[in-house]
Every structure is written in structure tokens, then in C-alpha cells.
């Protein structure tokens, strides 16, 4: 097992890691099985999409707290896509506001589900700004959450997300990506050229289980989504992470073979 390069850097107290990464091995799950797992959780496990999204978004917000506490800068820019990954970002934004950050949201192509409308209303009630000028917002952000695309992304990037990823890629702002770095193929990792080819976020949080693209990732890695049960993990041949106490996330390392 090798730890991320960030583990070898001595960080100042304000941004020092919350705890050491766990030394453990977690199996990655394909996009097809990830979709099937979510379906099983709802149809067999009794979960609703709202519940799963709420816990996923809470995990994202907690991971932000671990890598970038408010003392390191409260201006967090969250970029959301039109699907469920974007929904996780909407939930995370609400929790970040309640954690003491001053988040803003860039949501250029908004999802049409009634659930997303309710999540937006919650953010409006907290006076979270929805920004129109992404380039200007990026220049003043202390931290960025990439909640554009998750395990269902099939590429290539289309307008406006190709431009957005290029701007994130070239910006000097630490990034946490949700489930997968946006623009990356879930199986084969970053694109060979174009937007995202050099995108390597500071941190990554895998929801439910890691995806195969994590084999190409170098940085701080978290597992989140504390709702898996033994019957689900047994069905998909996964490992049940040993979360500590009330924690919703667990930081783990990545080895050279892509197993976590």
C-alpha cells in the first residue's frame, strides 16, 4: 500500500489532516454495478433517492471539512451538473453553509427533477448565492467542489462543461471531486487529450464504493455513503468500510494495482 503524495507533506495546523488514512483494501465497482447497487438499495433496501442523496451530500461536506476546514478559507464554490452527482453537490452546499462556510453555487445546466427544485429552494432560504460568472467566482474561491459528473458519465464533455473543466484544471484552487473527477472515464481514467487530460483534484470522495478510475488518481481519497449493508456488499463482492464513531467518511490510501 502506498499513501498519496500529500501524506508526505507536512501541512500547517490549519489544514492538517484529521486523521491518518486507513490501511485497508476496498474493491472498486463498475458503473453498471454501481447503478444496479443504487437500484437495489431503493427497491430492496427501502431507501429513497432523497435519503441516499442526503447522506451522500453530508459525506461530501464532511470530506471538505477534513481537507479544508473553515479556518483555511470559507469561500467554497460548488459546481453542479444536471444529474444525481449535481444533486449530491446541492445537498453538500447546504451542509457547508450550516458548517460555517460561505458557499456559492454554479449550476449552469440544472436538473429537472422535482427533488432538485426542493434542494434549490433550501439553498435560497439559506441565502446561498447562485453565481452566473464562473470565471469571476473561481478567482475568489478558496476551495472548489466538483459535483458535475459521477459514475454515469460517458463522455465526451460538451458545452458548457468542456470550458468549465478547462477553467478548473488551470485554476490555482484546491478541488474535491465527487465520486470521480469530472471528464474522467469511469474505467480508464483521465482523457488522453483535451479538457481534463491534466485534471488531478486535491481530494476525491468515492460514494458507496470506489470506481475503477481511482487507479489513476493521486491525492487524498475518502470513501463515503454510510448506508451499505452486508447483504448488499456480499452481492457485489464489496468490502464494508469500518467507519469510526459518527463519521460519515473514511480516508484511505490507494495502491499501485488500483485496489483501495
TrEMBL record:
Pfam families: YjeF_N. It is found in: Cytoplasm; Mitochondrion. Binds 1 potassium ion per subunit. Keywords: Cytoplasm, Isomerase, Metal-binding, Mitochondrion, NAD, NADP, Nucleotide-binding, Potassium. It catalyses: (6R)-NADHX = (6S)-NADHX; (6R)-NADPHX = (6S)-NADPHX. GO terms for cellular component: mitochondrion. Its EC number is 5.1.99.6. It comes from the Eukaryota. Its cofactor is K(+). Residues 34-240 form the YjeF N-terminal domain. (6S)-NADPHX binds at residues 84-88, 150-156, 179. NCBIfam families: yjeF_nterm (TIGR00197). Belongs to the NnrE/AIBP family. Catalyzes the epimerization of the S- and R-forms of NAD(P)HX, a damaged form of NAD(P)H that is a result of enzymatic or heat-dependent hydration. This is a prerequisite for the S-specific NAD(P)H-hydrate dehydratase to allow the repair of both epimers of NAD(P)HX. This is NAD(P)H-hydrate epimerase. It comes from Penicillium roqueforti (strain FM164).
